[in-house]
Write a structure and sequence with these properties.
Blueprint: H1 3-20, E1 25-28, H2 35-43, E2 48-51, H3 55-69, E3 73-77, H4 81-84, H5 87-96, E4 100-106, E5 133-135, H6 143-161, E6 168-173, H7 207-219, E7 223-227, H8 235-246, E8 250-252, E9 268-269, H9 272-275, H10 279-282, E10 289-293, H11 300-308, E11 314-318, E12 332-335, H12 338-346, H13 357-371, H14 382-392, E13 397-401, H15 405-413, E14 421-424, H16 435-443, E15 449-454, H17 455-460, H18 465-471, E16 475-481, H19 500-505, H20 512-518, E17 523-526, H21 529-540, E18 545-551, H22 554-579
Parallel strand pairs: 1-2, 1-3, 3-4, 4-6, 5-6, 7-8, 7-10, 8-9, 10-11, 11-12, 13-14, 13-15, 15-16, 16-18, 17-18
Helix pairs in contact: 1-2, 1-6, 3-5, 3-16, 8-12, 13-22, 14-15, 14-21
Family: Belongs to the TPP enzyme family. MenD subfamily.
Pathway: Quinol/quinone metabolism; menaquinone biosynthesis; Quinol/quinone metabolism; 1,4-dihydroxy-2-naphthoate biosynthesis; 1,4-dihydroxy-2-naphthoate from chorismate: step 2/7
Catalytic activity: isochorismate + 2-oxoglutarate + H(+) = 5-enolpyruvoyl-6-hydroxy-2-succinyl-cyclohex-3-ene-1-carboxylate + CO2
């Protein structure tokens, strides 16, 4: 058997087995050494291919695809630094528990560590940021070798999805020539001979342990349910039912999937970040117990509440074993299906003791009233831009926000709504890189998607615009341009006047109209709320990408936010003092 026939069958059987085990999409970055994988993926009759020239952007785009589809997505690149450019997205995928399958081409063993071009050490190059690494054997096409590649395709899926999902890495050494021959017969595996996908079940808590939890709920008046970032769309009804049954407030993170949709929202406290900003308010709201589902919330005031928490009943529920408790308080971890646990607790007959749910509901109303924008005002602040965007965004759409200020403004101004809005953000490592590309991956689902992003984060990932333009993806990009790192103006570093601008403010002084021109995209500079609303409506009524720039001043933004928070604090303290008089 010739080298080309061996190569074709070896890679073909792997690619087909990968698809049969559930990989439906692959993001390919062109290169020479990856030719066998790239061509076989492209020729496969069922695999959806995306081509992205920039490996860093490609990896974040795949991250967005996997986030939205909740299925593993494959990545293919050539050898050398191409594979190294995957690293930022791999780290984000690992910490945000998103399954990616990294398929890196490599030089064969005889060309390693001898000065051959484009050859670096790719063995375990992602270190502890992948769940599993395997160096594939050199291509052969005998029956044992073909079974081997099929088994590795099944195993890579199993490793990506087992327990908490995450990235996995296969390294493929290929000798030249590299071009497969598609005239060869039987290049794909037959379904009967392919390793079968693994089957998974859901973990349920023992009935005795459920009863112990129920006793905590029944004997404590001041309990909190906290739902941090999580992506289970079926969880909302279960946790709301539990909260209604036991009359508990739910502090709902903007990425909890609880602030929007058809489920009941009377127990949802979406303004808890504003409520807890004041230490004087927090001291009056010490809970008897806390049950948290999902990751740690975005809210820093909630972190302060946890640091000040004097109780000993802190419970974290995770679907699979893991450790996400950054405060260091004594914690009872429960590893079970969250929705099933909520249903089990809600099914236990219980008395309804006096609770503080009405207190939280009234505080939520007060904070909403303060935070809601003045509809008569034409001033376009960063917070008002987020509120107007949420008001205008279409039903059943995605909203992706950047880190730093955009996610915090979403936390503050994303009020409960029956409109179906799916919020997204890269909160695994909270970085500002790769945001445009990840949002485009989410937009590739076909749903209208809106990205709210700061100017620095937009600058970090302008390369991602190329793929969005080439594929005609529908993405409305709102660039909040405060000419630098706006979040630092809220932090103690703002007092370091001598070096603040150079090291923290970091103004770019860029005109993003030129970015739009470079990528041949429509662009609007929105000077006021009317222009912003008109630009949003125009964007939502057209196909493709559209950049809308909103220019703000960092100092004015800080003053606007602090005025809101201080007003909320005064009114909340007045209410709490009066209610306990």
């Amino acid at each position: 058997m010739s080298h080309i026939e061996t190569l074709t069958k070896y890679v073909g059987h792997f690619v087909d087995a990968l698809w049969r085990n559930g990989v439906e999409q692959v993001v390919i970055s062109p290169g020479s050494r990856s030719t066998p994988l790239a061509l076989m993926m492209t020729e496969h009759p069922q695999m959806k291919q995306w081509v992205n020239l920039d490996e860093r952007s490609a990896a974040f785009f795949a991250l967005g695809l996997a986030k939205e589809s909740q299925k593993p997505v494959a990545l293919v690149c050539t050898s050398g630094t191409a594979a190294a450019n995957y690293m930022p997205a791999v780290v984000e995928a690992f910490y945000s528990r998103i399954p990616l399958i990294l398929l890196t081409a490599d030089r064969p063993h005889e060309l390693r560590d001898v000065g051959a071009p484009q050859a670096i050490n790719q063995i375990q190059m992602y270190g502890g940021f992948v769940k599993w690494f395997h160096e594939m054997m050199l291509p052969e096409a005998n029956p044992p070798a073909l079974r081997y590649v099929q088994q590795q395709a099944a195993r890579v899926m199993q490793q990506a999805l087992e327990g908490n999902p995450g990235p996995v890495h296969l390294n493929f050494p290929f000798r030249e020539p590299l071009t497969p021959d598609f005239t060869i017969e039987n290049i794909w595996s037959s379904g009967e001979n392919t390793a079968k996908p693994a089957l998974y079940g859901s973990a349920q808590l023992d009935a005795n342990h459920v009863q112990q939890l129920a006793e905590i709920l029944e004997t404590s008046k001041k309990g909190l349910i906290v739902v941090g970032p999580q992506e289970d769309k079926e969880f909302a009804n279960a946790v709301v039912h539990l909260a209604e049954k036991w009359q508990l407030p739910i502090l709902a993170d903007p990425l909890s999937q609880l602030r929007s949709g058809a489920h009941a929202k009377d127990v949802i406290i979406e303004t808890y970040d504003a409520i807890l900003k004041s230490e004087s308010v927090r001291v009056k709201l010490q809970p008897d117990f806390i049950i948290r589902f999902g990751a740690m919330p975005v809210s820093k005031p909630y972190l302060f509440l946890m640091k000040e928490y004097t109780g000993n009943k802190h419970i974290v529920v995770e679907k699979h074993a893991g450790y996400r408790e950054p405060v260091g308080v004594d914690t009872q971890f429960i590893y079970a299906d969250p929705a099933m646990l909520c249903e089990a607790l809600a099914s236990i007959p219980a008395a309804k003791p006096e609770t503080w749910l009405p207190t939280w509901q009234e505080m939520n109303r007060i904070a909403q009233e303060v935070l809601h924008d003045d509809m008569e005002s034409k001033e376009l602040t960063e917070g008002i831009a987020v509120q107007d965007m949420l008001r205008e965004t279409p039903e059943d759409s995605n909203v992706f926000v950047g880190n730093s200020m955009p996610i915090r403004d979403l936390d503050s101004f994303f009020f409960a709504t029956d409109k179906q809005i799916q919020p997204w953000c890269n909160r695994g490592t909270n970085g500002i890189d790769g945001v445009v590309s990840t949002a485009l991956g989410v937009a590739a689902s076909g749903k209208r998607t809106t990205l709210v992003i700061g100017d620095l984060s937009f600058y970090h990932d302008m390369n991602g615009l190329m793929l969005g333009r080439n594929y005609g993806l529908d993405l409305t990009i709102i660039v909040i341009n405060n000419n630098g790192g706006g979040i630092f103006s809220f932090l103690p570093q703002a007092q370091e006047a001598a070096h603040f601008e150079a090291l923290f403010g970091t103004p770019t002084n860029l005109d993003f109209a030129h970015t739009a021109g470079l990528y041949q995209l429509p662009y609007t500079l929105a000077d006021d709320r009317t222009a912003f609303s008109d630009a949003l409506q125009e964007s939502y009524n057209r196909k493709g990408m559209h950049i809308i720039e909103v220019r703000t001043e960092r100092d004015a933004n800080v003053s606007w936010h602090r005025e809101k928070w201080q007003k909320a604090e005064r009114q909340l303290l007045d209410y709490l003092d009066a209610s306990h008089a």
